[in-house]
Design goal:
- By secondary structure, this protein is mainly alpha-helical.
- Helix content is about 70%, strand content about 0%.
- Helix 2 packs parallel to helix 4.
- The C terminus is likely disordered.
Amino acid sequence: QHYLAGRLHEATVAYRHAAELRPDDEGLWSTLGGLYLATGRYEAARQAFEHSIGISPTDAALSNYGELRYLEQDYAMAAELFRRALEVDDADFRIWGNLGNALRAGTGTGSQAHDAYAEAARRAEGYVSVDAANAEAPAALAGYVANLGQGDRALRLANEAWRLAPADGGGKAS
């Protein structure tokens, strides 16, 4: 409830307490790591993600840990963590896109990003066709196709996403 109300500090305290009560619950540790990441507490996030992964390496914990490593500009490790997350569950288009971002930013791996973005786009297209009212998938898809060199399509998708979610910065991309 704290998280949903935007009270991240209180949510973090509550999840830390829950993780202490259930130290073998990888989901609690993964979520705690996500909260630490969202509040900029990177070292605490690292410890929580590593604890979660030590219990059971879920796609969520691996992917979120990959996000942390990406933010720290450790692109090779981020790519490795995203690949491991995809080994657990390869359905989430966002993880494919994150892999593309890490590969594009990494040294000597930029040429590998195309395949990850293409897979992210393919999977995101499925979401766009199923849930036409959700802005997240077309917004992400816009980024993927932009990275694939499809600028006009990216612009159309971005405009569609903004139309669907005007409270999140609606308007028109130019």
